[in-house]
Amino acid sequence: MNMKKIFLLALTLLMTVVSASAQIHKASTFGIKSDGVTLNTRSIQAGIDFISANGGGVLEFSVGRYLTGSISLKDNVEIRLLEGAVLVGSLNPYDYDMVEGNYGLLLAKGQKNIAVKGKGVIDGRGFDCALNFLNQVHLGNLKDDIKYDRVSKRPKLIYFRECDNVEIEGINLRNSAEWTLVTDQCEHLTISGILMDSKNYWNNDGLDIVDCRHVLIKDSFIDASDDAICFKSHSAAHLCEDIEVRNCVARSSASAIKFGTVSRGGFKNIRLINNKVYDTHRSAITIQSVDGGEIENILVDGLEAVNTSNAIYLRTGIRWNNGKMGYLKNITLSNIKVQVPLGKADAGYSYEGPIEDLPRNVSPSGIVGIPDLPIENVTLKNVEIIYPGGGNKLYAYRGTSPEELDSIPEMIDTYPEFSQFKELPAWGLFIRHAKGITLDNVRLVAEAKDYRPAVVADDVDGLVIKDLKTEEPGSKGKKQIVKRNVK
Questions:
Q1: If you ran DSSP here, which 8-state letter would residue 418 be given?
Q2: How far is CA 315 from CA 357, 363, 365, 422, 425, in A?
Q3: Reported confidence tier of residue 22, pLDDT bands at 50, 70, 90
Q4: Domain count of the chain?
Q5: Is 371 a member of any domain?
Q6: The domain containing residue 312 runs over which residues?
């Protein structure tokens, strides 16, 4: 075990001991009411401030509904919601405060040794809350950039910024008005055993890890109407680093596990171990460097995805990079099984993902760089992807001649998404502008005959195929691997 792991283990044990021995303060002793009607913002904050000022401890909520606006956690304080306790978000926009331009129900900035634990619930009542924010903008009382008649700034359930030693454990997070749980530039963060159901409004990201270091996420369930587990890098001076996500389940009407909605700084040394994905509109796993981010040493080992519109999408580009050229390299994707449906994978969500640009047949997985920024050193090992097949050239067509491959646009400055090119010339895997790609025990299955080959590789320096199996009905004698400018 290396020194970093020893340090993190020791830190986790220390935090657990501190939490177990901390003094417990009942919420009721601060005049906090559990009737679901009394606005408790000031009394909850008074309790937090008192506990922090007196050496730290636990503010414990028993059975009941506790109405509140924004509250701010302070050093050495744990919020503990016992089973049956519900922290209820106010519907009044003016009951919410901002940290770094972000509204939130539970806020913290620059604090250390903070925690939110228990079997209770935090309910943001996001749909009604968002509509009330929108109404105030229409009345001219709040200023906001409205897009598609949605306000851009709405309360997150939890927003922690620049905090150290953070634990979020066992809690049930529901109905955020915007992103649900956001940690931004935090260090030594553990998220375990949480249950999240946040799909009652647009852009309800589940878990957003932004420029954080030394993070463990485990044994959690996340169901969101936008990206479920999303790593972001908003600052070119910071990055996400030393992170492990283990034994989690994700469902999303966008992507299940995503790197790089914004990718300015980068993502390094991240491990995703034994996770599951289902009913997901976009990618099971997508890793993107389009904003100058430095991305390397990403391991995905053990991923099972069912009813997911895309298996794997790796992408580079030049979008918001401000002259900084990033990179994407040293990616290992192993022990992965994905089933891609013919229809819309998130059908039935309250807020489904948008209909993709058509016409296009079902898209393949992609490792798609750009000429000046190839994707480097990617290994797919023990990977099985089952597609519906059935691609029809009379509906949408892209051939494999040099001229037809050259007609695929580079789209270097557009929002990265697996369907951005519309029709691609492979039904299983499309590789372009890459170096050092290894396919080791990869099985691609089409359940119906498809006009396209299984794999197309274009401009690849170093393609190693150790074992590749393709299965497609009625394809005897068909050339399933097409290569151009490949070494």
A1: T
A2: 19, 15, 11, 15, 17
A3: confident
A4: 1
A5: yes
A6: 205-486
